[in-house]
Amino acid sequence: MNKKEFDYKSRTIREVFNDTRKICIAPKHEVMLDEGVHPGGDIFTTEDGEFIDFETQLKDFDAEELAKYVEFAENLYEKHQKKVSIYILCPRTIDVNVRECPLKSEADFTIKLACSQDDICHLILNQIKNKLKNDIALDCDDMKAVEMLPVRCNRNDRNYFRVESIKIMNMFY
Fold this sequence. Notes:
By secondary structure, the protein is an alpha/beta fold. The protein has a domain at 3-119: Trna Endonuclease, Chain: A, domain 1 (3-Layer(aba) Sandwich), CATH 3.40.1350. It is built from five helices and five strands. A hairpin with a 4-residue loop joins strand 2 and strand 3. It is globular, with a radius of gyration of 16 Å. 25% of the residues are buried.
C-alpha cells in the first residue's frame, strides 16, 4: 500500500468511522488466520495492539456476508486476544439486507458499515488490490472492472486509474 492509499484509508477510518486511534499497517506474518477464513481487507494495528480491518463491500450486504466478517473477527481475536474493529465501506448503490443487532461471541469485536459518497472506482480498485495482496485469483468480472476503471471514474482521476489499470493488467497479460 502506497502513502496515498494509506492516507486515504486512515482518513476514512478517522472521519467516517470516528476512530481516531493512531494506526499502522499490520505485518502480514502477524495476521495469521485459519485456512478457509475470509482473509480480510487492509489490516492495521493500533498503538494498543488492537486490529482494524478496513474493507470495501461491492455486493449486497446480507447474512452470509455478515457471517463471513464475524468468522474473520473471531478467528483473529482467538489468535491474538486483541479487540478487532471491522470497518466496511460500500457504495450507496448496494442493498443492506441485515439489520443491526447484537451478536453473541466470546470474541471482542465491532463491525461498522458505512455508505460512501466517494467515486465507486476507488472502492473497486481497493477491492482488486486487496485480492492481489491476499493472493486471491482475479476472475473475469474483476478484470473487466479493472479495464473499465479509466472510463467510469471522474475525469480528474482518469490518468491515475489508467496507470493503476495498466499495472494490474500487465500482471496477467
